[in-house]
Task: inverse folding
């Protein structure tokens, strides 16, 4: 992309690029900069289904109402 084009709408150019994609910015036909979008940060390190192993145990009645709160639930 030409430097003048990038300056006028840089935010849209960044938002429209894919992570890892190189964008070479030129001035008068010569490259002057390279723009690369970083991948989004991981918000959670685990993967879907990672707790489906025998290493985790949960009581069969873990979501049963607690006796101490029974009066508040009626």
Result:
């Amino acid at each position: 992309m030409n430097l003048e084009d990038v300056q006028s709408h840089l935010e849209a150019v960044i938002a429209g690029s894919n992570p890892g994609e190189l964008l070479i910015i030129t001035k008068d036909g010569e490259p002057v900069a390279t723009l690369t979008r970083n991948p989004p940060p991981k918000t959670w390190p685990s993967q879907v289904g990672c707790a489906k192993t025998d290493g985790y145990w949960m009581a069969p009645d873990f979501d049963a109402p607690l006796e101490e709160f029974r009066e508040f639930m009626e």
The chain has three helices and two strands. Helices lie at 3-8, 10-16, 70-73. The CA atoms of residues 28 and 63 lie 67 Å apart.
